[in-house]
């Protein structure tokens, strides 16, 4: 059996956001410094996945509420834009790269999810084509930088679920949401025109 570590590259760096680690770090710090921590610690957040030029300042409102001292696993749920899915899909890699530092996928949790028979596997090509999860990785890395060796991520690509499947996946994920050391990040478009009005259109925080 191969022990080769498979990595997903930061495929949208350099276009949807800067590929420069120092520049990206400064941008994120700037946006986060302008918002208040009012709902901390959040158990779940909903934030946009547009290019950072459009939504970087908006997403800061959500990530400001993350408490890295208690968060150990981060579930990132993003909708599929490029492939048709009637279920949810798990990544086939071990590491998600960001310009800040690499994020490790929690293979233990992935194993539990895979054993349910409810998930598909996405190819590396699908993974790297998709932006809905990737756009949350730099903010996740930044929010967790003080405990960067103490947490893992659980990326999940979400398809066009029927109402019955929504209930099934909701029941499955509810047991993980009940654990206060788990954080859920829900990736959303909200809309494609209103990010600049972030003072009134804000991400949801639970």
Notes on the protein architecture:
- This is Protein MEMO1.
- It holds the Pfam family Memo.
- InterPro entries: MEMO1_fam (IPR002737).
- The protein has 206 residues and is an alpha/beta fold.
- It has a domain of 144 residues: 3-Layer(aba) Sandwich (Protocatechuate 4,5-dioxygenase, Chain B).
- 30% of the residues lie in helices and 19% in strands.
- It is built from six helices and ten strands; from the N terminus they run βαβαββββαβααβαββ.
How would you briefly describe this protein structure?
30% of the residues lie in helices and 19% in strands. It contains six helices and ten strands; from the N terminus they run βαβαββββαβααβαββ. The model is unreliable at 192-206 (pLDDT under 50).
State the end-to-end CA separation.
42 Å
CATH superfamily of the domain at 54-197: LigB-like
Find the CATH topology of the domain at 54-197: Protocatechuate 4,5-dioxygenase, Chain B
Largest sheet: 7 strands, mixed
Strand order of the largest sheet: 7-4-8-3-9-2-10
CATH 2nd-level architecture of the domain at 54-197: 3-Layer(aba) Sandwich
Number of helices: 6
Average pLDDT over all residues: 87
What is the strand tally?
A: 10
Shape: globular
| Uncertain residue ranges | 192-206
Helix content: 25-40%
Class per helix and strand makeup? alpha/beta
Organism: Pipistrellus kuhlii
Family: Belongs to the MEMO1 family.
Protein name: Protein MEMO1
